[in-house]
Automatic annotation (TrEMBL):
Pfam families per record: HTH_18
Chain ranges of the HTH araC/xylS-type domain: 220-328
Protein name: Helix-turn-helix domain-containing protein
Sequence intervals crossing the membrane: 20-40, 46-66, 78-97, 109-130, 154-174, 180-199
Organismal lineage: Bacteria, Pseudomonadati, Bacteroidota, Flavobacteriia, Flavobacteriales
Keyword Transcription regulation: yes
Annotated Gene3D superfamilies: Homeodomain-like
Cited PROSITE patterns: HTH_ARAC_FAMILY_1, HTH_ARAC_FAMILY_2
Organism: Flagellimonas algicola
InterPro entries: Homeodomain-like_sf (IPR009057), HTH_AraC (IPR018060), HTH_AraC-typ_CS (IPR018062), Tscrpt_reg_AraC-type_HTH (IPR020449)
Keywords from the named record: DNA-binding, Membrane, Transcription, Transcription regulation, Transmembrane, Transmembrane helix
Length: 331
């Protein structure tokens, strides 16, 4: 249902969303094969091989999806169809596997089936590995302290997606290695992971994001400029400083200023300004020369227009009241 929503009902139809939808659909068919095999009787071998083939499709699509979520203007590789050849071959071959051939104890049949099974799981592991490597490279290139909200959400989502697929891979491998775990554990684990990932995708709103979150632009430079104006000129000490007045200083719209502050400071404008005011207040409260100054006077000297707003902001950032901070510092 989530896949169908992304393909046909989602307003923002992007390549990464389409790839995610296809991955989810292949996972659903893969789970369906396992459920039918466990609970059904005399399941046709064609369904078994077709279900296994879906893993060969998930791997390449996973790599493309990770690239699409971390690269601006991503398009499918020029020869992307070549990566789907293993999936196409095994899927088409599944229609020629008859019951008599599949159930025979012929040594050659066992070797062929075992070889195909091993190849499928190694193929899936390979794509999880190269997808993880690309993911880690992007993390390294984007330090945590410089990430925007969108970048942070994408990294969190992709990390969970890759971990989920590793869990799925391990559960199925353990199943085929001397039945280390019951067969039904595989589809159960598969289902739990897919449901969890679908929930997190909605929660993090990753279907509204794509690689454009990593597009090089001047937003970071603008953020540094805003910060310099606010801090170097100590504009935060002015009680009437506003989003509008700060925007005029850098000649951009208030909407753009708000967007840049939200993305790079991960705070709204008021919290962004109040953070520096609180740092100033802490210096004043900790200075012994200011012991005779009232809390109110320090609040006004720090840029706050009222004592109540100062107390609320101080407790929000420091976890205690200005009076308590002064007592603790004095002690």
């Amino acid at each position: 249902m989530f896949a169908l929503y992304l393909l046909f009902f989602k307003k923002k139809r992007t390549l990464p969303n389409s790839l995610l939808a296809l991955i989810l659909m292949l996972m659903a068919f893969r789970i369906g094969k396992s459920v039918l095999l466990y609970f059904g009787n005399d399941l046709e071998p064609a369904f078994i091989f077709a279900g296994l083939a879906f893993l060969l499709g998930i791997g390449p699509m996973l790599r493309w999806y990770v690239n699409g979520m971390t690269s601006s203007g991503f398009t499918l590789p020029k020869f992307y169809a070549l990566e789907l050849i293993p999936f196409a071959l095994v899927f088409l071959a599944s229609f020629f596997v008859n019951k008599a051939w599949f159930e025979t104890n012929n040594k050659e049949v066992i070797i062929i089936f075992g070889s195909v099974l091993i190849f499928i799981y190694l193929h899936f592991a390979f794509y999880i590995f190269i997808s993880s490597r690309g993911y880690k490279k992007m993390i390294k290139n984007h330090p945590k302290e410089l990430r925007t909200k969108s970048q942070k959400a994408i990294f969190s989502w992709l990390g969970m997606l890759l971990i989920g697929l590793v869990i799925i891979w391990i559960s199925y491998v353990l199943n085929i290695v001397e039945d280390a775990v019951p067969y039904i554990v595989g589809p159960i684990m598969y289902s739990m992971v897919v449901y969890f990932l679908s929930y997190k995708a909605f929660r993090l709103k990753v279907t509204d994001m794509d690689g454009n979150a990593f597009k090089r632009n001047n937003d970071l430079d603008l953020f540094h400029l805003l910060t310099r104006h606010l801090v170097d000129n100590k504009l935060y000490l002015e009680s009437d400083i506003s989003l509008s007045s700060l925007s005029k200083l850098v000649n951009v719209s208030t909407q753009k200023t708000s967007e840049v502050i939200n993305q790079h400071a991960r705070q709204n404008f008021n919290d962004f300004v109040n953070f520096y005011r609180i740092q100033e207040a802490k210096k004043l409260l900790g200075d012994k020369d200011n012991e005779n100054f009232t809390i109110s006077s320090i609040a006004f000297d720090s840029g706050f227009s009222s004592l109540s707003s100062f107390n609320s902001a101080f407790k929000k950032f420091e976890g205690l009241t200005p009076s308590a901070f002064r007592k603790t510092h004095s002690a």
